[in-house]
Amino acid sequence: MQTTTGPSRKDLLPFKCEYCGRAFATKVDNRHFKYCPALQRGKYEGKYEVDEIIDVRGAPEYRFYKVRWKGEWDKDQETWEPARDMKDAEEAIADFWFANPHLQNHIHGNISSAGEHRCKWCCKFFDDEEKLKRHCSNCSEKPAPRSETSKSAKIVQRMLKTEKQMERENVMMGPHPLGNDYAFTYLGSSQTVDCDAANPIQTRLAMASAEWSKLISIWTSKSLHLKTKLKIFECGVCSKATHGFEAWQLTSSNVMKLKQWCARRLAVITGNDIATEYKFPSYDLVAALRVHRLRWLGHVLRMDSSRDVRKAVLSIQQPYPEGSLFMDAPEASPDKLIEMAKEREDWNMKVNALKWRLEMDSKPHGGLPQ
């Protein structure tokens, strides 16, 4: 027999489906209800009275009771029913536990019988282990797998990190204690105590999504030209999303996040599918950020040596980390880059060359005719 050791990560999620009990990071909507096994299971008219509970199987979260129904039945006189469907049979369940005191010690653990081949999700029994494995791989009641990179997993991880941060000893500023916040905002940029490179991007994208929703009538308007919509999207939404982008780490995962966010919204504006807008965007947000960052880097390198911004940028050591401000700069030492940046026209040519290359990469067939 196995016993539970405490709540799992999915139990920490704030929303649950009232039918199957599955936990979610956001409110449960029709996207889940459409495929919810418990909701889509056949519904029968009328109520059926339980004669008695005669057996039990499974862990508390996947508990099934073997029910004997009252009345005369041609078949299915006894069926295995999930605990979630036994809300009106509490008295019969209590009688079963009272009549089986040997199971009381295992009520919070996994109840099974040696040698049986049973699916823990739907409680179907099979003759051998091979048939059980084939069934379990396609069981309709089997919950969807959750990866460590899923939205739900990330929310749980953030909640756990926040709780751990709150438990730390407070730092004092004179007689006043400073709050142990996991995330904080500085100069409009959201930061975390563990320097999560994705957090400022996710925060700004969430803010930009709110602005996007306010302008939905513009995106769906048939009277506005496409170029006008794209310009409004660039100025009114993307400008909100990219505040402080000079300090972002444009790693491959963060670039993918930006491209996915942009593609979903461009698909609404242009009418193209999301995959097309991801590969060949009508407005390439990532390319625009890279061009602006290279131009801004030249501006910073031309600053006086006493400027703090210049000192902070030059404090980045070689080899430069993935997605840093120097990702599109020429491969040279800092001193050599400073000399290059002083030649403003030559630096602008490098910026324009990067812009042209990125524009060609974002067009089908590299911008060349078929």
Major sheet summary line = 3 strands, antiparallel
Q: Structural class, from secondary structure content?
A: alpha+beta
Estimate nothing, just give the exact number of structural domains. 2
Using DSSP, what is the number of strands?
Answer: 13
- pLDDT averaged over residues: 86
Q: Please state the overall shape, judged from the principal axes of the Cα atoms.
A: elongated
Describe the structure.
- With about 375 residues, the protein is α+β, with helices and mostly antiparallel strands.
- The protein folds into two domains: about 1-135, OB fold (Dihydrolipoamide Acetyltransferase, E2P); about 200-365, no CATH class.
- Helix content is about 40%, strand content about 10%.
- The chain has 14 helices and 13 strands.
- The chain has helices spanning about 30-35, 35-40, 90-100, 130-135, 150-165, 200-215, 215-220, 225-240, 250-270, 275-280, 285-300, 310-315, 335-340, 345-360, and strands spanning about 1-5, 15, 25, 50-55, 65-70, 80, 110, 115-120, 125, 170-175, 175, 185, 190.
- A three-stranded antiparallel beta sheet has the order 4-5-6. Strands 1-7 form a two-stranded antiparallel ribbon.
- Strand 10 (about 170-175) and strand 11 (about 175) form a beta hairpin.
- Helix 11 (about 285-300) crosses helix 13.
- The chain is elongated and about 95 Å long.
- The termini are far apart.
- About 10% of the residues are buried.
- Mean pLDDT is about 85; it is low at about 1-5.
